[in-house]
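Table S2 (text version). Query chain:
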Amino acid sequence: MSPDDRTVVVDSLGVGVATGAYGVSFGAVATASGLDVWQACALSLLVFTGASQFAFVGVVAAGGAPLTGSLTAVLLGSRNAFYGVALAPSLRLRGWRRLLTAQLVIDESTAMGLGQEDARRTRLAFRLTGWSVFVLWNLMTLVGAVAGEALGDPRTFGLDAAVGGAFLALLWPRLTGWPQRAVAITGAAGATGLVPWTPAGVPVIVGGAAAVVVGLLLARRRGTAS
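Corresponding structure-token output:
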């Protein structure tokens, strides 16, 4: 293994460990929101995208219908389809392997994969990051869910506010420039303004849709300017 390959391995596993460990917070938040341990674990196994998972439990915790929470999760997870389009030429997969690998297309694996100089290292970084996050995220979800269920009433420890805090922790590092901040402010303002007037879950969907529209308009404007 060359020094460059070793660097890719170390960096990919480092990202995987750091991200996967955060699964403990989702497990605790999920049970605090009314899910049982196995429901929390099933979400991590089948959905496996942090923002969508936190959005779903946030809607459920607020009293929204599971269907509304699912629509919100799908809206947030739709970005992964665009990641897949960018990764496909380097991964060069067909058939069932393509379907299986699609589960690993998340923010971290995409960033590590596309950050490499050639297709071989892209595949190496993507797989190491994706699988390490997947294994640890699911393991730590179980740990967090068991611990959260053992704590009992979430309001006793302030865990009823944990969904918003965890979601903000996921969002904050991504607000690196004015376009990202404009999109975030649009979504937050739209959702907040609808809270008193609409059922639980609807503000998140409408706010998210508004954020997507603003993001597309800003991207088109930047493309035209360049």
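Notes on Table S2: Residues 155 and 161 are 8 Å apart (CA to CA). The chain has two domains: 3-174, 176-226.
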